[in-house]
Structures are given as structure tokens and as C-alpha cells.
Amino acid sequence: MARRLTIKAQSSRLKGERERSKKGLVIVITGIAGIGKTSFGQQLSEKLDNSVIIDKDTINDAFLRKSSFWKPFPDAYCVSVKPLSRKTAFYLENVRFQTYHCMLKIAQDNLQAGKIPILDGNYHKEISNGYLRGFLIPFFENLNSQVKFILCHADEATMRERIENRNAERDSEKLISDKQWKSFLAENPSVPEEMASFDHIKVDLGKPLQRQFSAVLSFLGN
């Protein structure tokens, strides 16, 4: 009980500091897809007053569903039960990168409303390909907002178990064999070296989260 009160007090202090500084805060959760970032983000949001989660998978899912625009209203608003595959050209050309832009614009609207956006969008490849440094961070700096990164990682056994349990189509290739899995890990290290140059904290999703939230909230308040 005492620990819960301590975390709540940290959250209130963070809110007060942001109100005094008038500077916005944007939280970006990054890490390999499928290891539990969304669950962590939801728990973090519960501990942060006035925060809102912006989830890339939710936006992807919406725009990968076929519409029924040819039908009379209100049936025209219906969309297909099953979304299109992320392996299709439609996703690559019309959804994949546009979703990142959509997340920025939603975050902008929420910052202007005085909220703390929590961006849950993988962003793992973006650590090294220049997007974060060249686009995302400047976008929010222009909005007088600070960006803080939370890198979610886990041991190999935990990662593989969670990705297998997710059973997503886009994970099938990396799970075909042990060789494919090792190749995936080599190309996508759980803790990329480039992350050291960003203002971040690491969260081990293979360990109890409650023990780590105090450090996370302290980091966000600095």
C-alpha cells in the first residue's frame, strides 16, 4: 500500500512540475514488437494523470479494413471483420509510414489540450534509421515539448515466448526455425547501441513491473 502511495505521489509531482514549466512531455515506448510494450504502456498510463495512449497497432488495424462505401447509409460506415495483411503493397504504400505521421498529429492535438501523449509504436528500427533524431524529436521540440524514451526489453526466452503467444502473421517468418530466430535477433538487438544517445530509461519486461515504475516516474519527472 505504501508503495502505491509513493508512485501516486510521484505522478502528482510530475504533473505539478509540467504545469509550472509549461513545457509538454511526450513519452515514446520503443522495443521489439510483441514483447509486452502495450501492456506496459497501459499500466504506465494508469499511473500518470492526464496521459493518453496513442497506439500504432490500433491505427494500423483501422486503416487495413476494407470499407463498405458503396452501400447506403448507415451501412457505408461498416468495415471488414478481418484487416488486410501487413505484407500487402497496400500497407506499405498507404498505411505503414502514414501511421507514424498520424500518431504525431494526434499527439500534437493532445499536447495542446494539456495531456501527456504516450506513443506506443515499436520505433525499434527508427532508433538507428534516423527517424527519431531527424524527424520525431524536432517535431515535438517545435511544440515546446520534451521527448523521453522508454526502451522495453527482455531476455531471449521471454521475448520468444511472448511473440509466439501473440501468434501474429507478421511474426511467422522469424519463428520458422531457430536459424531464422537467431538471424532476427542479430538484426534487431533488444537493446540497440544507438539508444545510448537518447534520453531514455530501460524497462525489463521479463521482471515484475511494479518494482520498476518508481524509477520510470522519477526519470519522467527530471
What helical percentage do the residues reach?
40-55%
What is the structural class? alpha/beta
The quaternary structure here is: single chain
Q: Specify the CATH architecture.
A: 3-Layer(aba) Sandwich
CATH topology: Rossmann fold
Question: CATH superfamily membership, which one?
Answer: P-loop containing nucleotide triphosphate hydrolases
- Uncertain runs with pLDDT below 50, 5 residues or more? 1-5
| Number of E-type strands | 5
Shape: globular
The side-by-side strand order for the widest beta sheet comes to: 2-3-1-4-5
The profile of the biggest β sheet is: 5 strands, parallel
Q: Look at the structure and give the CATH class.
A: Alpha Beta
Number of helices: 9
- The helix-strand sequence is HEHEHHHEHEHHEH
Report strand %: 5-15%
Number of domains: 1
Q: What is the average of the pLDDT values? A: 88
Question: TL;DR?
Answer:
By secondary structure, the protein is α/β, with parallel strands linked by helices. About 50% of the residues lie in helices and about 15% in strands.
What does this structure look like?
The protein has 222 residues and is α/β, with parallel strands linked by helices. The protein has helices at 2-21, 37-47, 56-63, 89-94, 96-112, 131-141, 156-166, 178-187, 210-221; strands at 24-30, 51-55, 116-120, 145-153, 200-204. The protein has a single domain, classed as Rossmann fold, CATH 3.40.50.300. The chain has a five-stranded parallel beta sheet with strand order 2-3-1-4-5, sandwiched between helices. Helix 1 (2-21) packs parallel to helix 9. The longest helix has 20 residues, at 2-21.
